[in-house]
Amino acid sequence: MPKLSQLIIDVIKCYKIQIRFVIVGVWNVIFSFGIFYLINTLFTSNFGQSVVSNLFAMIIAQIIAITNAFIFHKFITFRSKIRGIRMFFEYIKFFATYTFSFFLNLLFLYILVDEFKQNSNLSGAIILPVTAVISYYMHFYVTFKNT
């Protein structure tokens, strides 16, 4: 029977991309929520709690978070060697995946805050992990599939 330490090493070797994706994904969730929380708090304190301030906070936070996520997934998770104009197209595919996730975020934020009367910051914390899982499959099979 193999030792536990050898079993762990074997699992890490077998699933190294997935493990890196999870680690980067956790970073992205923390970073994304932090940016959303900061911007949403700023908007709410200046403009009051409203659909408009929540949506603008989510839009700005998403743009910042997408660029951060692209950099980390490109260089850490998938270790993509694509450069030049092809990197631009890689970013476009990445952005398209996140655009889809973004619209899910907007829909879920609206439902939780305006229909179910939940706190917008708590709603953001609930929404981000759900869309992170969806993004995983899209990036794995679309954005970086040829890496």
**Which regions are unreliable across 5 or more consecutive residues at pLDDT < 50?**
none
Number of domains: 1
Total of helices: 5
Subunit arrangement of the protein: single chain
Gist?
With 147 residues, the protein is mainly α. It is built from 5 helices and no strands.
Overview of the structural elements:
The chain is mostly helical and 147 residues long. 85% of the residues lie in helices and 0% in strands. The longest helix is centred in the N-terminal third of the chain and has 32 residues, at 16-47. The radius of gyration is 18 Å and the shape is globular. The mean pLDDT is 89.
SSE topology:
Blueprint: H1 4-14, H2 16-47, H3 51-77, H4 85-115, H5 120-143
List keywords for this structure.
mainly alpha, 5 helices, 85% helix, globular
